[in-house]
């Protein structure tokens, strides 16, 4: 991928280096700021500089000593993992069918998923609020898991069917010719090829569920099922007279950690997943 | 071997073919069922609710009132203010994101040094929880706490114009990388040889960009615009955290939420839900019919 119409001179490299620094700073400074806030003491917060003048772990100690944060964290993790698992399993089944099989209603399914991908979530808030109250799902885990699965499925189906179309399926046939049973062919040949796509999709779906705010504040009312983003909006600090800036920042940093880990370790896969699903379709 | 034969004999529905159809439907059933149960039924129910006077504070007064809620909402200045703000924010953010996203896509695609580092950092805004980012911006602009507050004259979040600018910038920061990734996928389809040939023929960088890259990337650009426009139109999280809709910065999603959860007025809330749904449907229709955006996946049937 050499530069067009010119050699890779040092000057050019320096210019790219500068551009890259701009991008990195642009992307990271709001994150650094909230990390910095989370380590600031009360006094340092009111001073207003970018970096802490006085470091402390009090904010973290405070949030991990209150159910106001621990319970939502538990909810966030549980709800996101369950929703991701179900969405990925159902998404894999549907994507396999779309990529590999010929059946009536295939276009319809693709169309419906596309519609849902574009669906304004707020339009569902009013009816779901009432339906879930009637069914007893309001303020429960399933009450959030269901909409999360629904809105992750289009993402899962698109990403996975794009991945599945790239798999050289002739290998399966070849394995069978060589005497492998269909089970062996799947397990030894297809599953290893499909696994990266499934894994990537799981990350994207998890990020989506982890991120949701609108459903989380509309379909919950107590700590039993409120997730961290929703809880943050109602955070008052360890006592109601305290300014919650430091504790909110600490909680915000804690829920950012999984995202940072995903991005650091699976950058290549996330990029591949997002680009393949959206354009090649 | 038998499946191979079945694929060849297309016109007749052989046993294998029937089994394939059955399996296909079976595999899609759970996904299709959940998607329809959680969206289609509620949106129909929402329409039904929107035809009622239904205030949870006065449940006894529930009755069918036809289109009265629609007249109430559509003649309300609050609705049109929120609609105007939503439209304004959508247009501003999507246009700026397209420009910045294109620049970022070119950087991520072409950079000579540290490509991994650039891509990794660009994914952070995409992945971070919107509420977290919104709090970061909020504190940055909070007087005495934030490093940006002084720069913008004390308390920028309490003034309508600067608050809107802050909301827009928070949205742009968060979603430009996503736009860039979608555009980068389009960029990958532009053959390098063609760009080199154009360069040899004396085309300038700008000419190569406008005459070759943009036309070839058109489908990717339209898809990115469609997705981002629809997404921007539902803006909620950033506004909720940054201003909670004060100073006239509320979007239609904010207004619906306030009527429903705070006001407990299901009738009005549902009416707004339906109106937003219609607005989004119109935007999608315009993109697909007028601009000819190829909906991703629309050509799925032909290719295997």
Could you walk me through the main structural features you see in this protein, from its secondary elements to its overall organization?
The complex is a heterodimer of chains A (281) and B (304). Chain A folds into 2 domains: 1-56, no CATH class; 63-280, Orthogonal Bundle (MetI-like fold). With 281 residues, chain A is mainly α. Chain A has helices at 10-38, 42-47, 58-63, 67-100, 106-118, 122-135, 141-166, 170-177, 182-211, 214-218, 228-233, 245-280. In chain A, helix 9 (182-211) packs across helix 12. Mean pLDDT of chain A is 85; it is low at 1-6. The two termini of chain A are 25 Å apart. Chain A is globular and about 75 Å long. In chain B, 71% of the residues lie in helices and 1% in strands. Residues 1-10 and 297-304 of chain B have low confidence and may be disordered. Chain B contains 12 helices and 2 strands; from the N terminus they run ααββαααααααααα. The longest helix of chain B is centred in the N-terminal third of the chain and has 36 residues, at 15-50. Chain B is mainly alpha-helical and 304 residues long. Chain B is globular and about 75 Å long. At the A-B interface, helix 1, helix 4, helix 5, helix 6 and helix 7 of A face helix 2, helix 4, helix 5, helix 6 and helix 7 of B.
